[in-house]
Fold:
Amino acid sequence: MATETETPIRGMGHSVKRKEDARFIRGRGRYVDDIKLPGMLFLDIVRSPYAHATIKNIDASAALAQPGVLAVITGKDLDAAGLAWMPTLMGDKQMVLPVDRVVYQAQEVAAVVATDRYAAADGVALVNVEYEPLPPVTDPIKALEADAPLVRPDREQKTNHIWHWEAGDAARTDELFNQAEVVVKEDLYIPRIHVCSIETCGCVASFDAVEGKLTVYMTTQAPHAIRTVFSLVTSIPEHKIHIISPDIGGGFGGKVPVYPGYVIACVASIKTGHPVKWIEDRSENLQADSFARDYHITAELAAKRDGTMQALRVKTIADHGAFDAAANPSKFPAGLFSVITGSYELDAAHVEVDGVYTNKPSGGVAYRCSFRVTEAVHTIERMVDVLAQKLSMDPAELRLKNFIPPEKFPYKSPTGWEYDSGNYPAALRKAMEEIGYEQLRREQAEKRARGELMGIGLSTFTEIVGAGPSHTFDILGIKMFDSAEIRVHPTGSAIVRIGVQTQGQGHETTFAQIVAEELGLPVENITVEHGDTDTAPYGLGTYASRSTPTAGAATAVAARKIREKAKNIAAHLLEVSPDDLEWENYQFRVKGTPGKAVTMQQIAFAAYTNHPQGMEAGLEAVDYYDPPNLTFPFGAYVCVVDIDRGTGEVKIRRFLAIDDCGNIINPMIVDGQIHGGLTMGMAPALLEEITYDENGNIQQGNFMDYLLPTAMETPAWETDKTVTPSPHHPFGAKGVGESATVGAPPAIANAVVDALSHLGVTHIDIPITPWKVYKILEEHGVAES
Amino acid sequence: MIPDRFEYYAPTTLAEAINLLQQHPDETKVMAGGQSLIPLMKFRLATPGYVVDLRNVPHLDVLQERDGSLIIGAMVREARLESSALIRQRYPALLDTSSVVADPIVRNFATVGGNLAHADPANDHPAMMVALRATLLAQGADGQRTIPIDDFLVDTLETSLKPDEVLVEIRVPQPAPRSGAAYCKLERKVGDYAIAAVAASVTLDENGACTQAGLALTNVGPKAIRASAAESFLTGKPLNDETIREAAKLAAEAAEPGSDLRGPADYKRAMVRTLAARALRRAAQRATGSIAHNGNIGGGVA
Ligand SMILES: Cc1cc2nc3c(=O)[nH]c(=O)nc-3n(C[C@H](O)[C@H](O)[C@H](O)COP(=O)(O)OP(=O)(O)OC[C@H]3O[C@@H](n4cnc5c(N)ncnc54)[C@H](O)[C@@H]3O)c2cc1C
Structure:
């Protein structure tokens, strides 16, 4: 028999060090730019300096005369192959390379293929494009005016309006508003931001003309979906397309879409017969790849004078740029924005969103926000504070009064969601106690009396993650299940292949822990693989905090299938009936007979050497998990800020995050996700935004002006948790990758507004810059002089 | 992010460097730390045909007091200033300045000479050198000359250096008794160029009256601006809340800010007032020995 290992199992709840970190911290990660294939060529892209222009002519002769330049590919070349346009995941279409017009600045105009990247860059500088500028429109509200420039004349509908979407009960909501004792209303703008993963996008495309096979190493969060899309677009049979997503340096939603560069690189490889590498530089990534947010929201909240919240009414203009190339589930053009009623029990709600085209790059990337949940959470969490201020109530008290009570779960929300589980008062009370809420309020009052400005902000958000059940969720018709395949080897180690794709979430560790827990095999002995479409089972990829809710569940279910079979083998080994066995302490034991037990290692060996007659040999299983519902993680965040009256600077003094993501696989990894998420939540609250001038020029096209926070801007996050398991998930987990990004911005905004609330300030749009604050201080005569 | 073609030279003597500059004076760029030049070249905003790197030229890294001045060789890197005991103890305002230039990685390369020769109004050293009334030593084919800082800084990205001249060293007058200086910078995030910054330098007499004041502003005009009216106002007066407030107001009036991504013009002007008051207070504290001669002061420290 196989030798028994002393190694502990370290399944659920262990802070196992990340298996992937050994190679990352030793510089042995393998990212797309590390892939070098023999004969590989390099592709670089000519981009439009104009936001809106017709292309009169493209003259590539000087570039082609440059040593090392082998080809220049234009929209006309692609058009001949029917590839000048490609479908987006949202049912729109998008230019790969333009034939006659550009619709945003930095749009791809032509591609240069050369023997090295320096020659390619020099070639790009030599491609002479003649443009005739057209007036652009970059403001979605202006884009809806009758005389606005038309962004997409290729469409049948000659308007910049893309779609209208709504949820909830309009009539009932209006009725409650008409009768309401108190109504508060605010306009909120959630600015355009960019994911800015450390690794930019890129690929190495290699077409083998003999085999007719296309292999693409690419930075994608969803390799299988990409394979299917590529097959549909190029009509290369799907089994002849091999997508490999190696180590990915951050995705955050920005690596779900298909960018033109990927398609052009594939065409370039087919055309030249060589592998072709395309790697964006930092500015290209920031200026041209899909953006997030950009929601213009008007929100109203109706309540009784005693603070009972009754109804929410929201109208939104969504700026999608020139193509609706978001990566939401198909039936959700505005993502899961309708979770906007948040953690509160409301009688009714009505939410409307209108998608609009502008001369900007595509918007709508789900930047670490599930799908549009950041926008939703910011709205409701701000509005609750606005209401508290109007009623002169403490914002914590108002929240506690209106929370969905724990006993009402599963809770049906007025926009149609069924929240699986939650205990909001417990999380908020824990946060208030740990931060010393009452004491901070006293300190604030004393400081105010002395003219000093300090604020305390809360955010008690509800997330919605784990898309999703097949009855509602699909992408281009592909249902949003996810998958796992487990094989246990004879000596009791195992390989797990999953349909989701890590970009830093630590799947190689956490998925091994799931299997360790379910099968009683040491975590060290379990390998996790993903990202290779020739070997991994089909899955929709990692984004929207869906890996644990979907593929994590599939992994547990597949492991349980293995355990069922293992039980029969155990019965055979112990010469008892399977009914006499119990699974306890990671072993099958004969009930009532201490000492009579077999481990999974012993069973695994037997599965290949001594399996019962009539039973298939081997120990493996596959599961495609269709989640019965989404999961609803939540949290209670408290932020304490001090404001410098001489400069308007906001300093985060403390930030406490209480998170509840159900049962936890690896607390250290969850903590890491929350720390990173909080920093990414602070960023748009205080620093990041992308704006355009009237000519459509991006104003923050590099890291000098796009203000990514560093460790220096990041406060010392304080974290803690409550645990409310998901009742429908196989091991009670929810998702956590995005909670902090979603929950943090309103806590910060609420803290700043709280610091200034005695001056009558009710709202400040993010990012809250020092000059926005200083202007308020000056207007109210409280700036330091 | 890939520069145009260029030829690279790393001469080992100053004479050789100057000789190289003379060959293609309009197409050649001197490179010190490269932290301004290389980004410009990578964006192809600068496309020099020739780059002359000073890294191997000897004697450009002196850092010592001599003949009544602190001598800073043109190739002294920011990191060197930061770790120097001499700077920490005797010239804490230079430490204030150095430690808010960019980030530690950039400061390992970036030089004080490059910071001045680049003459970007957003660079931090020019205003400090204006407040301290530094003199620069340049060498060209025709020999050496000294240039007062006010004459050196001509306009945005423009100095009075001739195309074949190399900046060799910076001379900062040694502080007289009861002198103090400080640099206060407000930035959007660490490593950023200033929204605004103010350099202040004061010398007091035995009665606490100001015998000499230097006040200069970063990134609120085409070049580092000397706030002359504020300087004259302070001369002969004690430094107290009232005089500091008035000098800060005069400094703000000297600013010529524009509106951009670092904030609207009126905000920047107001910030000059806030930062001037803070810098003057810190300089006065240093002059009277009422605070330790080190530590960073950012915009946020009252
Ligand atoms: C991310 C980043 C952030 C930054 N933030 C700041 C900041 O906050 N504050 C700040 O002040 N600076 C900042 N800088 C600029 C940095 O300090 C520069 O390096 C410095 O301004 C120039 O110094 P250098 O040695 O790198 O010069 P280089 O880049 O090598 O040269 C700059 C210019 O000066 C000329 N030059 C250099 N030395 C001589 C010489 N001896 N004689 C004649 N001409 C010469 C060069 O020809 C060139 O035109 C930042 C840079 C980066 C990359």
About this structure: The longest strand of chain A covers residues 182-193.
